[in-house]
Specification:
By secondary structure, the protein is mainly α. The chain has one domain: Up-down Bundle (Ferritin), CATH 1.20.1260. It is 80% helix and 0% strand. Helix 1 runs antiparallel to helix 2 and helix 1 packs antiparallel against helix 4. The longest helix has 28 residues. The radius of gyration is 15 Å and the shape is elongated. The N and C termini lie far apart (44 Å). The mean pLDDT is 97.
């Protein structure tokens, strides 16, 4: 069970980092298509934000404590901070790469949940994987534009 808890903590920290980066980009995007990017990033970070509490609650349901400090998230996250302000196209590319890391983290957690026959958690993780696959094709489509 410890491995599953650890994987879920990585999912939580990586999700929070992805949320924070998308919101950071939302605040700072510029350019000719500002309005479209601004709204796209808002939709993205709002959806991710809505999942963070549910992910923490899944950790608590495993009888473990959810991490909640920025220091701990930085230690656990698969996503690096972005302190520069890239172009809108590069923002999308960065988020596409980070989304792939998050899908991988979710997939590892799902495999461990399956091994332990944690069926409710499997369902939750599969739902999150499906949502991030949608984010993937949307980000990829924006980059092609």
């Amino acid at each position: 069970m410890e491995e599953l808890v650890n994987r879920m903590k990585v999912v939580l920290a990586t999700s929070f980092s992805f949320y924070l980066k998308a919101q950071y980009y939302h605040w700072n995007v510029e350019g000719i298509n500002f309005s479209q990017y601004h709204q796209f990033f808002a939709n993205l970070y709002e959806e991710i934000h809505g999942s963070i509490d549910q992910t923490a609650e899944q950790i608590r349901a495993l009888d473990a404590y959810a991490p909640g400090s920025l220091k701990r998230y930085k230690e656990l996250s698969e996503i690096m901070c972005d302190e520069n302000i890239p172009s809108a196209a590069m923002m999308c590319k960065n988020l596409l790469d980070d989304n792939q890391k998050l899908i991988l983290s979710l997939t590892f957690a799902r495999a461990e949940a399956e091994r332990l026959r944690q069926f409710g958690l499997i369902n939750y993780l599969e739902g999150r994987i499906d949502i991030h696959k949608k984010h993937h094709w949307m980000l990829k489509s924006v980059i092609k534009g």
